[in-house]
Write a structure and sequence with these properties.
single chain; 539 residues; elongated; alpha/beta; 4 helices; 22-stranded parallel β-sheet; five-stranded antiparallel β-sheet; disordered N terminus
Amino acid sequence: MSMMLFARRGSERDRSSRGQVLAITGLFLAVLIGFTALAVDYGTYLLARRNYLNVADAAVIAGSAYMSRPISNAKRDQARVAAWESLKAQLNLSDAMPTTAQLNAGVAVSGGYTIWISTPPTDAGVAYPGDSGISGSTSVFARVQRDNPSFLARFFGINGRTINGWATAGNLPSRWAVLALCTSTGPCPASVESIVIGGTNTSLRVIDGDMGSNWGFRIQSNAADRLQLPGDSRGYIAEIVPSYCGASTFLCYPNPNVSDGSGTAKLMQTLPAIIADPAYPQPPWIDDTVTAVPWGAAGDANHDVTVPNGTGTVTDPSETYVGCAGGFQPIGPGRYRDLDIRANSCVILDPTLGLSRGQRPGIFVITRNFNIGNNSFVIGDGVSIFWTSNANPFNPSGGIVINNGNAGGISGIPAGEAKYGAWTSSLAGVATWTPADALGTTTWVLPATTDPGLAFYVRPGAGYTSIFNMSGTSPLIFLGILYGPKDNVSVSGAGTQAAVGQIVGWTVGYYGNTVITQTFDGPSEARSYLLEPRTGQPD
């Protein structure tokens, strides 16, 4: 009897255990199915977001192709049209293009999408989740948004989710008004992280272009508006937060010394990639002293020219329209060991003076010294000045004005064309003059480019040089390009320093007590690249 009772109780326990297992299994399966539903739906959300990101990326890349500087309303309109057409094709939209106001505010279109397209991105207001310090005013913003339904999760009371993807794109920086090529691996001079602004009151103002440094950027005095980037101009460096950042070096960013020139701070940008040497070509015949570029100073065994004190009269010496009058000294093209212009003199570099058959106009090559004395000026149009890599530093006390149209028509160059110099920076290099004929005459030829020519060229050698060191109280004014890819270029003094073109050096230093203005004009290429979103930015 007791055995039968024990067996019956054991059977009841087994049935009870089986019931518990079934209940637990059922609960587990419900939880598993719920998690599976969430995982499946979350995966569809991630896939949708990735698709919308790709759509937005393609749209802003298409639009930013039209955003080359200088920016105009017409270019912004073209950018919006291109971005819209890209979105329309990718999302199979059937709508006509919305108005600019609708695209800025976000417009509902077919397929359940809401679309934003804005340039600049800040025109989209709070719909733009990025950083205007990164995107700037020359980029395009696009955002795609849609309510994506849940599939399995809705059986558990979980509804759909709003998914969006956004992006901004602009043009890779290429309008280098000031460019320093030295990287952190150097060798750069001490206390020069590619570009430096020294002195107490020196300011660099970059117009319609950018400042670019393959390493850093040092400001040696804590004063406002030391680097001025008005309008669309921007500053790019390789390291936004260098390891040597500190109050004594003024290298930390954001930096209050960087502004738009009117007191509004501007952010430095990180270079998308190290900037390559533009590798502007030299004339292939530059060292042909027999038939192409003759040794200058005919009759002088050392090929030297000395201009005595008080030769000629300088007109408007403190103005950009400085000129020569009254017995000035003309000097023709060629290869010179020394050019020594003594004080209170005025010299015209005449690109066509004294040529023989086959010789090339406008090319001046300095192999040792080029001196300009106090209160003296050297002025030239249609010329390009080259220093050999073993020349002594160019450290004039007087002023030099090149290809600015100040030579008084001596060279016969048409108005507005002096900026091309004697040798262009593009088209693999082109001479702007025909070789001299049998009578020594030559003809100016307008090159098939709008890019300026080479004004100054420090020829690279085996090592690094410090040849171009403009200083003093007299002006440095030129139209064209100062190119010294292995030269530590330095501009200092209290005189007028203004150029339209480019300054390209291994390093570039600005010193003194003046505002130096560099306006961009030169080769540039509009190539689109994505700016945002970046790591840490909101969806």
